[in-house]
Structure formats: C-alpha cells, structure tokens
Amino acid sequence: MTTPIRAASLTLLLMLPLLAAAQVAVIVNPKSALTSLTADQAAAIFMGRTNVLPSGAAAQAADLPEASTSREQFYSKAAGKSSAQVKAAWSRLTFSGKATPPKELTSAADVKKHVAANPDAIGYIEKSAVDATVKVVLVLD
C-alpha cells in the first residue's frame, strides 16, 4: 500500500510546475482593430519576423525583463524558444540591422500601462493581471 501512495505523491510533485504555470495573455490597446491573434503571429512580432500587426498597424511590441517567468513562458509557448535562443536570435537581427527588439519594460504593470496608452502597442502579461485598460487577443496555457 505504501508503493501506490509514493507513486501518487511523486506524480503530484512532478506535475506541480505545470499546475503552477500561470496563463500568459497577449494584450493590445482596447482601441486596436485587432480582435485575435495566433501564437505564430505573436511569435512573428516578438521575434522580429514582422513589425506589423495583422490589422495593418505598425506594432509597438513591449517585452518583459529576461528574468521574468512570464517572458520565459511566453516565448516557450508562442515561439518554442528558450530565453537563450531568443537572446541569440535578437543578437543576430540587431547586429545585421534587420530589426529592433521589442521595448523591454521593467514589470507587467509597465507593459500594461504602455499598451493602454498606445493604440498600436502589443505586449503580454499574466492573464490574472488583465483589466479593462487592455484587450486580450491570445491566451497561452
């Protein structure tokens, strides 16, 4: 009887990181014509493959700091990349002059404030931090 309890406990411990991961919401200004976005479209914007929103507006992307768990989760879910891979990709793009990285802000509150104040801004924050000042166009689990 002890073995099944140990197995269940081990399974639960292994699942805790998955249960603890918060949802990340990609947000835009409420006045934006954009109503939805795919993970591929979000990755294209934040990885420098495009600087235009699907609505046709020039994207003003706002990023969280490198140490942010929401940033790690966003890039992992949207682009399938780790922080190191994202940094390397941006180093290449910046060096070649092909693109400028998203504006890195210090906190989710700053990203939300930036998006709320700029009609062409796009960013991402934990879904639990979303309020009426921004519009959600994609949720990444």
Protein model, in words:
The chain is of the alpha/beta class and 141 residues long. The chain has a single domain, classed as Periplasmic binding protein-like II (D-Maltodextrin-Binding Protein, domain 2, 3-Layer(aba) Sandwich). The chain is 44% helix and 16% strand. It has helices at residues 2-20, 39-46, 69-79, 83-96, 108-117; strands at residues 24-28, 60-63, 103-104, 121-126, 135-140. A five-stranded mixed β-sheet has the order 3-2-4-1-5, sandwiched between helices. Helix 2 (39-46) crosses helix 3 (69-79). The model is unreliable at 12-19 (pLDDT under 50).
Offer a quick outline of the entry.
Helix content is 44%, strand content 16%. The chain has helices at 2-20, 39-46, 69-79, 83-96, 108-117, and strands spanning 24-28, 60-63, 103-104, 121-126, 135-140.
Question: Strands, helices and their partners?
Answer:
Layout: H1 2-20, E1 24-28, H2 39-46, E2 60-63, H3 69-79, H4 83-96, E3 103-104, H5 108-117, E4 121-126, E5 135-140
Features:
single chain, 141 residues, alpha/beta, D-Maltodextrin-Binding Protein, domain 2, 5 helices, 5 strands, 16% strand
Q: At the first level of CATH, what is the class?
A: Alpha Beta
Order of helical and strand elements: HEHEHHEHEE
Order of strands across the main sheet: 3-2-4-1-5
Q: What CATH architecture do you see? A: 3-Layer(aba) Sandwich
- In DSSP terms (H or I, runs of 4 or more residues), the helix count works out at 5
Large-scale geometry: globular
- What is the straight-line distance between the termini? 35 Å
Find the CATH topology: D-Maltodextrin-Binding Protein, domain 2
CATH level-four homologous superfamily name: Periplasmic binding protein-like II
Number of discrete domains: 1
Largest sheet: 5 strands, mixed
Helix content: 40-55%
- Unreliable spans: 12-19
Radius of gyration: 17 Å
Mean pLDDT: 89
The secondary structure category is: alpha/beta
Number of DSSP strands? 5
Which percent range describes the beta-strand content? 15-25%
